Amino acid sequence: MDLAKIQQELRNQALDGWLFFDHHGRDPLAYRVLGITPKMATRRWYYLIPASGEPVGIEHRIERGMTKGAPGSRLLYSGWSEQLACLRQITAGVKRVAMQYSPMCAIPYVSMVDAGTVELVRSLGLEVVSSAELIQVFEARWTPAQLESHLEAGRRVDRVRAQAFDLIRERTRSGAALTEVEVKNFIRERFAKAGLFTDHGPIVGVNANSSDQHYEPTDEITAPIQAGDWVLLDMWAKLDQAEAVYYDITWTGYCGDQPPEEMRKVFGVVTGARDAAIRRVKEAVAAQRPLRGFEVDDASRGVITNAGFGEYFVHRTGHSIGVEVHGNGANMDNLENHDERRVIPWTCFSIEPGVYLPHFGVRSEIDMFVGDSEALVTGEIQREVQLL
Predict the structure, then answer these.
(1) Which residues make beta-bridge pairs with 366?
(2) Mean pLDDT value across the chain
(3) Is the preceding peptide bond at 38 cis, omega within 30 degrees of 0?
(4) CATH superfamily of the domain spanning 3-139
(5) Is 59 helix (H, G, I), strand (E, B) or coil?
(6) Could you read off the pLDDT of 52-84 as tens digits, one per residue?
């Protein structure tokens, strides 16, 4: 934990402190930000980082050491009234405090503290605000080494993606049998050989299955891939090493030389929406203008809505990317949630608009990294339907 950095950010955001709380492992973010080892907390603990001065924690007498490793002193309690007295003591002089809370649960990734605990803290006369912006700074920002790991993962994933399409092309043009799950297993094997790790996936969807956003074939549930089929590949992986971050893409292809006009049209609408979102990010970063997640979603969604496919775009435009494929930074979202978090430097997110019709779906996904003065797409961009 970088105490000086946290306290500086608290002052930047006009906060008096950041109050952490856990009970029964409800808040994994607290352990990661504080740099302490997660333990099963059968009793409540608190830890306050003030905007200036020494942090202080509260622990139960039979569970001492729950916040071991974090700086500062500790108060001990046993009973309910003693716990409340300790909480009143450590927050004396504090007026505005951040907690892992989100008003109206707008950002569920941050909404870790239960409503009753928020009520308890407010009963002491404190204003409780969301720590969503703080979490971004200390959870979502990459190091230079993580950026390099992402770029290298991208090069390897893009190679595997090309190899998977080659396999589909070879089998479908020769008339040999091929199924979705075979392609999935092929990708996983190539990932392992390339030194890549993924927690699940990939998505390999043919025709109607490509419209199921979380479809994943199995040995029991899989469809054949044949000439004339539409194929979607959604692939995510990271280098198999500590602190590596994910690379996450989606490409689509047609098994033949002449995709139907409807497929070409929808592909053009989706890639146009993707490119509109990319432009929105690039222009804002280049001009040093503030940018928030919902604005990127609006740019993308507007293209699809204006083309008459708005009802078929049923998810947010993009998600934060980190050591987990869905990270804890701003999402490009004004559908599932109204994400007002800033898009801050040294963070990465996907842009992946989609149109999902009953008989086929199109999604085009790239990753964008925002640096200090520019934003870039970190891998290859699909411009045309992949002909297989």
Answers:
(1) 351
(2) 96
(3) no
(4) Creatinase/prolidase N-terminal domain (3.40.350.10)
(5) strand
(6) 999 999 999 999 999 999 999 999 999 999 999
